[in-house]
Write a structure and sequence with these properties.
By secondary structure, the protein is mainly alpha-helical. 77% of the residues lie in helices and 0% in strands. It is built from 14 helices and no strands. Helix 1 (2-29) packs antiparallel against helix 14, helix 5 packs across helix 8 (173-206) and helix 13 runs antiparallel to helix 14 (278-306). It is a multi-pass membrane protein. One of its GO terms (molecular function) is dipeptide transmembrane transporter activity. Belongs to the binding-protein-dependent transport system permease family. It is found in: Cell membrane.
């Protein structure tokens, strides 16, 4: 098991190093100069050159990359060109919204998907299975931003049970959770539909195994066989999807954050792109990439916990 963990950590480190170089290169290739953007089109060339020197943009790309990575390794992500504040603090503030939102959405999608997937697999080929699969297809096809607006109209405008948008901070935890509930539901619905379909397919495939037939021959019902024997062996593809979903929910909630006016990480990246605040974009995207790679590493460890055969590789 230790060798397996060490190998995965090496892969994690190499992936992060390659990702940092790609992120820096791609962002630097984007057209437009941050200094010219900040000063406006009427700025004098000498003024633009002075600002570029002050921001360090006149240095060679390899040197700028080396300074950026050296700062990150020391916990210093640099300073925002636009807001003149440390980027580490900006990311930490935004993660207080994006991370709980992603965790809430993932928890809701899992709570919905597992019973739905088990129900559909236990009734394979019957009316209940067809009904569930049809509902999940609708859930996948439904745009989450449109569903989010419906939730706002129903629960915020008509019933006035939940706030329509904004985030009050964690000074009042109950108010903070209430403000994240509607966006979490909007994000969770399509993810739950995907996860339920994957779980159903994995369970159906597992039911064809000999040990499942043996369990049925001993007198267990189909539902008991699914819960006691098939579910654990069907978890590997499900864990893969859950890891991908968490990464998407953390990094891909830009539209939902804008619908609900949430000051999350995705919205910060969008604003930084429009303001040509390149160092914020680079640092925030690298944090998201690290989160994705770290989740992948944890999923690999979960694989080893579920399937002991992987520990020997």
């Amino acid at each position: 098991m230790l060798r397996y963990v060490i190998r995965r950590l090496i892969v994690l480190g190499v992936s992060l190093a390659v990702a940092s170089a790609l992120i820096f290169s791609v962002v630097e290739l984007v057209p437009g100069d941050p200094a010219s953007f900040m000063l406006g089109t009427g700025a004098q060339p000498e003024t633009v050159a002075a600002l570029r020197q002050q921001m360090g943009l006149d240095q060679p790309l390899p040197l700028r990359y080396a300074h950026w990575i050296a700062g990150i390794l020391q916990g210093d992500f640099g300073q925002s060109f636009t807001y003149k504040t440390p980027i580490a603090g900006m990311i930490a503030d935004r993660m207080q919204v994006s991370l709980p939102l992603a965790l809430m959405a993932l928890a809701l999608s899992t709570l919905i998907a597992f019973p739905v997937g088990l129900y559909a697999a236990a009734r394979r080929g019957r009316t209940g299975d067809a009904t569930v699969m049809g509902a999940t297809q609708i859930g996948i096809a439904l745009p989450n931003f449109w569903f989010a607006m419906l939730l706002v109209l129903l629960f915020a405008v008509k019933l006035q049970w939940l706030p329509a948008g904004g985030f009050p901070g964690w000074g009042d935890p109950l108010a903070a959770l209430r403000s994240l509930l509607l966006p979490a539901i909007a994000l969770a619905l399509p993810q739950a539909a995907i996860l339920a379909r994957v779980l159903r397919s994995a369970l159906i495939e597992t039911q064809e195994q000999d040990y499942i037939r043996t369990a049925r021959a001993k007198g267990l019902t189909r539902g008991q066989t699914l819960r006691r024997h098939a579910l654990r062996n069907a978890l590997i593809p499900v864990l893969t999807i859950m890891g991908m979903q968490f990464s998407f929910l953390l990094a891909g909630a830009i539209i939902i954050e804008n619908v609900f006016y949430l000051p999350g990480l995705g919205r910060m990246i969008f604003q930084a792109i429009t303001q040509r605040d390149l160092i914020v974009v680079q640092s925030a995207v690298l944090v998201l990439v690290f989160a994705v790679i770290a989740v992948t590493f944890l999923v690999d460890l979960a694989y080893a916990a579920v399937d002991p055969r992987l520990r020997k590789r």
